[in-house]
């Protein structure tokens, strides 16, 4: 079956291809009778014709596509929720989101040159050469970072602060010997190293020994082995700061396997406040992150980048806090 073109719509509507283009691409600064607009739209709908996105991009110089670049991270509940919120907010503004997980040797430039996005949004900072190339090509860049960063159109999620909050909470409940349950997946190192650094800094500030670090897989055997190590020394661990809620749930399982009570013997705090945290036994104390606020900020930053008259996004004041539950 031959591909439909604007010529087919023009012939069926009794107008020129230029008129079809103006109508279907929403140009309102051209004087076209409303009856003609309706006829063209009705014919296009009946024939099943839609304008080529690539051609529309060439004509306008800009697409309605936002390229969201995710580093080579595991896609857990937090990133999944962030992308869901972000996609919904940008869809409400007439923009589509293409999510690209940056794996393999293919240069990023090959991708953005192929899809011609209006904005490239990064969930981590771009390499300097990639950033410069996109800016030289006239592509707006928006991003987020795992550290404090005052740059405009950049959302900061300081991971060091997460680890600091965990230890501050545990120490306030009287714990002096604290462990850190690290993830076993190396792809999470950018997050884990910063969170551990924050926990270590807070221990030092409070005059505590550095946290005893063990990697914990998401299974009971691995967690139980870590618990045995933590409890075997001269100063048995009485509290665990876990990399995230999933690792914390594994630690709870390991504690039960070792017949230890939480929080009576060992308290546990996670990160992310995933739904399962509230359903755990005992309910899991955790550090909540403002994922919806981050998505809203990034969406507003995209709009501001495209429309210089738009107000710059306002950074939310509360991006993380401890949600205290029974596990501590």
Automatic annotation (TrEMBL):
CDD domains, sorted: HTH_LacI (cd01392), PBP1_LacI_sugar_binding-like (cd06267)
Stored Pfam families: LacI, Peripla_BP_3
Alphabetized UniProt keyword annotations: DNA-binding, Transcription, Transcription regulation
Signal peptide: none
One MF annotation (Gene Ontology) recorded for this entry: DNA binding
Domain spans labelled HTH lacI-type: 4-60
Name of the featured protein: LacI family DNA-binding transcriptional regulator
Species of the source: Cellulomonas edaphi
Lineage, highest ranks first: Bacteria, Bacillati, Actinomycetota, Actinomycetes, Micrococcales
């Amino acid at each position: 079956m031959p591909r439909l073109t604007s010529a087919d719509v023009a012939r069926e509507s009794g107008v020129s291809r230029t008129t079809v283009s103006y109508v279907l691409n929403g140009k309102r600064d051209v004087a076209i009778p409303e009856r003609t607009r309706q006829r063209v739209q009705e014919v296009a709908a009946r024939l099943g014709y839609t304008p080529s996105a690539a051609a529309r991009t060439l004509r306008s110089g800009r697409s309605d596509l936002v390229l969201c670049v995710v580093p080579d991270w595991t896609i857990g509940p937090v990133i999944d929720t962030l992308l869901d919120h972000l996609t919904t907010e940008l869809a409400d503004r007439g923009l589509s989101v293409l999510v690209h997980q940056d794996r393999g040797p293919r240069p990023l430039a090959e991708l953005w040159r192929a899809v011609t996005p209006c904005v490239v949004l990064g969930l981590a900072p771009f390499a300097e050469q990639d950033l410069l190339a996109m800016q030289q090509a006239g592509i707006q860049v928006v991003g987020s970072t795992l550290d404090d960063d005052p740059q405009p159109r950049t959302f900061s999620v300081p991971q060091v602060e997460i680890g600091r909050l965990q230890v501050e909470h545990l120490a306030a409940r009287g714990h002096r010997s604290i462990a850190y349950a690290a993830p076993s997946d190396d792809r999470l190192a950018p997050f884990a190293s910063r969170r551990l650094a924050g926990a270590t800094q807070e221990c030092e500030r409070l005059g505590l020994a550095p946290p005893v670090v063990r990697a914990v897989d998401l299974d009971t055997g691995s967690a139980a082995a870590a618990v045995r190590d933590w409890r075997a020394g001269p100063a048995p661990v009485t509290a665990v700061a876990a990399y995230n809620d999933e690792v914390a749930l594994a630690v709870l399982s390991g504690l039960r396997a070792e017949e230890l009570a939480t929080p009576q013997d060992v308290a546990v705090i996670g990160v992310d406040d995933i739904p399962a945290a509230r359903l755990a036994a005992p309910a899991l104390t955790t550090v909540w992150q403002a994922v919806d606020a981050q998505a809203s900020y990034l969406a507003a930053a995209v709009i501001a980048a495209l429309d210089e008259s738009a107000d710059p996004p306002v950074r939310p004041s509360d991006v993380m806090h401890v949600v205290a539950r029974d596990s501590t």
